[in-house]
Amino acid sequence: MDLTQGTKEEKNSRAKKMMLWFGIISLIMSFAGWTSAFVVSSSRPDWLKDFVLPNAFIVSTVVIIISSLTFILAKRALKRGNQKATSLWLFATLILGIIFIFYQFSGFQQIIDLGYNFTGPTSNVTMSYIYLIAIVHILHVVVGLICLLVVIYNHFKQKYNVTSMLGFELAATFWHFIDILWVYLFLFLYFVR
Asked: Does residue 76 register a pLDDT over 60?
């Protein structure tokens, strides 16, 4: 397919989708670097081999998976022209995103309660990596929440319909990416010692 062909809207759509995927690829590379550094650092003598991830991280993982499902349901409702259901599922996704962040911070508190801070004399390199990886992911969830708020605003302005869903689709793609990314990070941190 020739990328220069099509209407102005089609070209605009392709360009925005391509920019999003470039961003996603760069995020994958960044997190791959951090998880690689985690593996390399695990040979250090001060590395914690027997740490257990906080239970709050398990809850947050379930919450973020459910949030992807609610975003899918919002998109289906929009395609059917059901504005009320679309609004309901978008708000559910937003609330679940906020709950995810709450449980992430609860997990940090559980780590602190074990005696490990991010920095300082009570820090540990293992836990510092966990803090770093989770905090950077949380920042991307915050970006996802901002995108979601823009989608909700545009939805109430009735800017989306079956033939015009670009902003909605871009936000959904990013949201699903950060959800899948957290599931990967959780499984990585859970199984890699």
From this structure: yes
Cβ 16 vs Cβ 147: under 8 Å: no
Closest of 162, 171, 189, 151 to residue 58, by C-alpha: 189
**Quick check: 2 pLDDT over 60?**
no
> pLDDT tens digits, residue range 127-161?
889 999 999 999 999 999 999 999 999 999 999 98
Average pLDDT over residues 62-72: 98
User: What domains appear along the chain, each with residue ranges and CATH number?
Assistant: 8-191 (1.20.120.80)
Cβ neighbours around 150 below 10 Å, total: 14
